[in-house]
Amino acid sequence: MMKMLKTMLLPILLIAAILVPAVYAVESSTGNSPVIIDVRTEAEWAAGHLDGAVLIPYERIGAEISKVAADKKETIFLYCRTGRRSGIAEETLKNAGYHNLTNLKTVENASKVLSRDVVK
């Protein structure tokens, strides 16, 4: 019984270790609301995006980030369809000097972690 409980507890702890930092990061270090950026295409955005998110396709993130987050200490959440493009956007922003970044990977995961609806 104890062995089974330990076996079940490990995956739960691993999931908590992944999600808890993202949930706590919702509180912005600058006191502002966090910036949520959808880095997908306009067509994907139109099909459904997170409530309160802004659209900046990943290939334009370096040029357009200052429009929504001029402060490089701002809390920024990124998501796309699979996590690949949001990962690229995260690296671009790190190289530009942004530090408080969280790649939530998919829109579905971002919705769960941030407790926000997907809207059209």
What does this structure look like?
- With 120 residues, the protein is α/β, with parallel strands linked by helices.
- The chain has a single domain, classed as 3-Layer(aba) Sandwich (Oxidized Rhodanese, domain 1), CATH 3.40.250.10.
- Helices cover 44% and strands 18% of the residues.
- It contains 5 helices and 6 strands; from the N terminus they run H-E-H-E-E-H-E-H-E-H-E.
State the CATH topology: Oxidized Rhodanese, domain 1
Order of helices and strands: HEHEEHEHEHE
Q: Between the first and last Cα atoms, what is the distance in angstroms?
A: 48 Å
**Got a strand count?**
6
Radius of gyration using CA atoms only:
16 Å
Q: Which word captures the global form?
A: globular
> Major sheet: order of its strands?
3-1-4-5
Rounded mean pLDDT score? 85
Q: Number of DSSP helices? A: 5
Count of individual domains? 1
SSE order and pairing:
Blueprint: H1 2-24, E1 35-38, H2 42-47, E2 49-50, E3 54-55, H3 61-64, E4 76-80, H4 84-95, E5 101-106, H5 107-114, E6 118-119
Parallel strand pairs: 1-3, 1-4, 4-5
Antiparallel strand pairs: 2-6
Which features would summarize this protein structure in a list?
single chain, Oxidized Rhodanese, domain 1, four-stranded parallel β-sheet, two-stranded antiparallel sheet, 5 helices, 44% helix, globular
In short:
The protein is built from five helices and six strands. It is α/β, with parallel strands linked by helices and 120 residues long.
